User: Fold this.
Amino acid sequence: MKAPLFWKNEDSLWGVLLSPFGALYRLVTSQRERFATTTKVQIPVICVGNIVLGGAGKTPVTIMIAAALKEQGFNVHILSRGYGGKLKGPLLVNPVFHTAPEVGDEPLLLAQTAPTWIAKNKAEGAKAATKAGAEILILDDGLQNPNLYKNFSIIVVNGEYGLGNGRIFPAGPLRETVESALKKANIIMMMGRDNHLLEKRWRGICPIFHGDLTPHVNDIQALRNQPIYAFAGIGHPEKFFAMLRNYGLHVVAEKAFPDHYFFKPRDLNELCVQAKQLKAQLVTTEKDFLRLSHDVRQEVKIIHAHVIIEEENLFSNLIYKAVNHEEKI
Assistant:
């Protein structure tokens, strides 16, 4: 879905009018959490989640953690809901023959780093991964799911977007109250600049780390000195466009689509025609590329990006303690 503009505006009339529905949504989810049966598996579960709907940077953070743990010799598996895919799982994703309409775009991206499972039922997915030999399980986007016990939870926050209007869905972008989310958190990962002074409000609740997405140098260098037509269907496509400009690329046009958008042939044809008219190179994200038809992919360049954390050593130490069953932070 594409986030409505009033989600950013605290004074929006729509936010006020929809607040009763937000209260109802919170009541339903809180009752679900209260009466849910929580399953605990035999391996550590690290949850990477967020408070708002849409792109905070969970998937890149998940990839970064999985890669770091693999380097330490752990057999890491990832568990995803498989948003946008029609298969329910539990299913081990095979990026060679599975497609985004089947398993979702994020699992295909995650599977490039570590064995990735999709499961609508998180507990069943965790059991399947454990049975398959996983030593550590990273739960991508499961903070609000009460069915699986988490040993360690990370809340990822887009510092530039913040919490929108601060209201609960559908009145705003929040999945739950900020207070209830922070009670679950072991650490907070602030992605990008903290434009809303959230760190000041949350100081002392739990450790706060600072990270950001950085594009691969080779991808940027290959696109210098040529016109760029950028498009993206992610949570906050404007951040992707701004990143390209910040790294000196000549963006002559941009096109934003809803998050997890499945491109139609008409969309792709229009992009190709417009890019040709502008004599520009089509550029998109890794996740969007996985939702393109194969005949169009040869026309599009990818900007690969990875997470850089300022406090990398301290962050690694906390994760190491979590997966080795040491004292909870």
About this structure: Residues 13-35 form the longest helix (23 residues).
